[in-house]
Every structure is written in C-alpha cells, then in structure tokens.
Amino acid sequence: MTPFGARLRAMREARGLSLTQLAAALHVSPAYLSALEHGRRGRPSAGLIHQVNEHFGLIWDEAEEMVALARLSHPRVVVDTAG
User: Fold this and answer.
1) Which of 7, 25, 39, 54 is the most buried (most CB within 10 A)?
2) pTM of whole model > 0.90?
3) What is the DSSP string of 51-67?
4) How many whole angstroms separate alpha carbon 54 and alpha carbon 2?
5) For the range 71-79, what are the long-range contacts, defined as Cβ-Cβ under 8 Å and sequence gap of 24 or more?
6) Are 42 and 74 within 8 A, CB to CB?
7) CA distance linking residue 74 with residue 14, whole number of Å
8) Cα 2 from chain centroid (whole Å)
9) DSSP readout, 2-71?
C-alpha cells in the first residue's frame, strides 16, 4: 500500500463509504480505485487529487498533505529473478 492509498482508504472507511460509492463520486472505476489504494497503480493525477480533496472537504494543510503523499506514492516494483 502506498502512502496516498493508505490515507485514501482510511478517509473512505472513516466516512463509511464503500469502494464503489467513492469510485462513483470520483468518476473512476472501482477497480482503479482499489488498485490505487493497494499500490498497484502509479501516482494519481493532479485532477484526481483535487477531486479527492473536494470530496472530503480537505483544505490548506490537509490538501497539501494529500499532494505530498501522492508524490511519494509509486507502485511497488516486483522483479522476477527466477531462472
């Protein structure tokens, strides 16, 4: 899980939102949102970060923290060294 994905999931669960409900509100697929939360997708776009901030009513420091967490969030790299 990436820092952005962990925070997004915590906020979603704190509000009692399902993955499907939040995905619909953000106009993304539930599969994409799940992959984002679990670190299987690259960092989110600036537009998606803005949508998340608006949806959860984040302003000032909280909104900037989400931007910073997104910058730190890269998908987990898996290297197959078998063979």
Assistant:
1) 7
2) no
3) HHHHHHT--HHHHHHHH
4) 21
5) 71/43, 72/2, 72/3, 72/4, 73/2, 73/3, 73/4, 73/5, 73/39, 73/43, 73/44, 74/2, 74/42, 74/43, 75/2, 75/39, 75/40, 75/41, 75/42, 76/39, 76/40
6) yes
7) 24
8) 8
9) -HHHHHHHHHHHHTT--HHHHHHHHTS-HHHHHHHHTT-S-PPPHHHHHHHHHHHT--HHHHHHHHHHHH
Tokens 């106009």 belong to 27
Contact, 19 vs 60, CB < 8 A? no
Residue with tokens 């537009």: 47
Q: Which two tokens stand for residue 30?
A: 């539930």
